[in-house]
Amino acid sequence: MFGKCIVKGEDVLKEEGYGDQDSRWKNYVIMICFILVYRFITYVILRYKCSESGIRGFLI
């Protein structure tokens, strides 16, 4: 009883709705969105740091 698993991990994931092909594409979309958001935040930070007149030059 203590050495063997009764239910496989794949079965649990499928039961919760994470084992199908749709969830894979959702994960790809979420990953791409994270990348784009991080790149945008980095751009804003670099734009602010490199601007000579500070926040006023950044906004205008």
TrEMBL record:
Against InterPro entries, the record matches this protein to: PDR_CDR_ABC
This protein's GO cellular component annotations are: membrane
Q: Which GO terms describe its molecular function?
A: ATP binding; ATPase-coupled transmembrane transporter activity
Phylogenetic lineage: Eukaryota, Viridiplantae, Streptophyta, Embryophyta, Tracheophyta
Where the record annotates domain CDR ABC transporter, the positions are 3-54
- What is the protein's given name? CDR ABC transporter domain-containing protein
Residues passing through the membrane, by range:
28-46
Alphabetic keyword roster: Membrane, Transmembrane, Transmembrane helix, Transport
